[in-house]
Amino acid sequence: MTMDIRLARIDSRLLHGQVATVWTKAVTPNRILVVSDNVAQDNLRKTLITQAAPPGVKANVITIDKMLKIYTDPRFDVFKALLLTESAQDMVRLVKGGIDFSQIGINVGSLAFEDGMTTLTDAIAVDNAGAAALKYLVNDAKLNVSIQKVPGDKTQPILPLLEKHGL
């Protein structure tokens, strides 16, 4: 067996109100895994994220390599995980490392705008590297990658938005 990943979400805000309340109720995880090399090295962000976990759910901040190690470790089969990455590039590293998201797909919540990025929706902006990573997840990894802020919203496939903006 492997770890039960109930939601794989790309969200530059990581663990915030919508994730801690609405998504946690929808997917009923017992563990929130924030998978980020950057955050794992930032004690302040790590502390804030672990404190933001809702009651009854433990949050951990781990590196991408650590996630790849524990994914198939039977000791972690008890995890019913909500997995969060800050970027599509981090999600690609997980996929290339052997994590199977084929049953659940990838949810894109929010990607904050920075200079040089293209705005796809009011909550999603990408640069060329982010767009390439999202296209890899859809075209090469054959995953369902869609935008959905909260569970009640209709899902929107990411690829047509990338194509519409010439990415």
Automatic annotation (TrEMBL):
The keyword Transport applies. Keywords: Cytoplasm, Kinase, Phosphotransferase system, Sugar transport, Transferase, Transport. The keyword Transferase applies. One of its GO terms (cellular component) is cytoplasm. It is found in: Cytoplasm. Residues 1-167 form the PTS EIIB type-4 domain. GO terms for molecular function: kinase activity; protein-N(PI)-phosphohistidine-sugar phosphotransferase activity. Gene3D superfamilies: Phosphotransferase system, sorbose subfamily IIB component (3.40.35.10). Signal peptide: none annotated. InterPro entries: PTS_IIB_sorbose-sp, PTS_IIB_sorbose-sp_sf. CDD domains: PTS_IIB_man (cd00001). This is Protein-N(Pi)-phosphohistidine--sugar phosphotransferase. It comes from Secundilactobacillus odoratitofui DSM 19909 = JCM 15043.
